[in-house]
Amino acid sequence: MDDIREHYLAWLRDAHAMEEQSLSMMRGMLSRLEGYPVLCARMEKHMAETERQVGALRKLLEGRDSGASVVKDTLGKATALGQVFSGMFADDEVIKGVMAGYTFEQMEVAAYKVLISTAAVLEDTTAIPILEENLAEEQDMADWLFDHMDQTTRIFLARDEAGLPARR
Ligand code: MG
Ligand code: FE
Q: What gap in Å lies between CA 70 and CA 100, rounded to an integer?
């Protein structure tokens, strides 16, 4: 049971790092979305959701992890995780950002699914609805990005053809 608990706490810390990373990537992308008001509004909504998620994870960790500082652990982890996605997010092209965003949301969905299973094994019943709420927000965001991929692509192509900044 101790091993399971260690995995659980490590995965909670990873999720916290993942959300911090997600915030910084969305913040960077939002600054380049002036031609995409619908996408912009949805991302602003998800940023607010993500800020809430970070707080919820922090509370979960504070109640369960008696060890090292959550924030300190998170900083190193965010760097490792971020390397996978930051290149695509940093790209000026909105399409690559949206593809990376969609992929990132799916990773978040998987992370919460794993955490819910682990919480169930540990009978941490108070954590489960909190993790389920985060999972539902990630799933909604992933679905939204997928459902609007056509619209986003068409806006990008139309702007490009109109000679508007193709990278915005
Ligand atoms: Mg999230
Ligand atoms: Fe998300």
A: 26
Ligand minimally distant from the alpha carbon of residue 134: 1
Distance, CA 162 to ligand 1 centroid (Å)?
35
pTM listed for this prediction: 0.89
**Residue spans per domain, the chain:** 2-161
46 CA → ligand 2 middle, Å:
7
* DSSP classification of residue 67: S
Which of these CATH numbers, 1.10.150.170, 2.40.50.140, 3.10.310.10, 1.20.1260.10, describes 2-161? 1.20.1260.10
Interval 149-166 mean pLDDT: 89
Other CB atoms within 10 A of residue 70 CB: 18
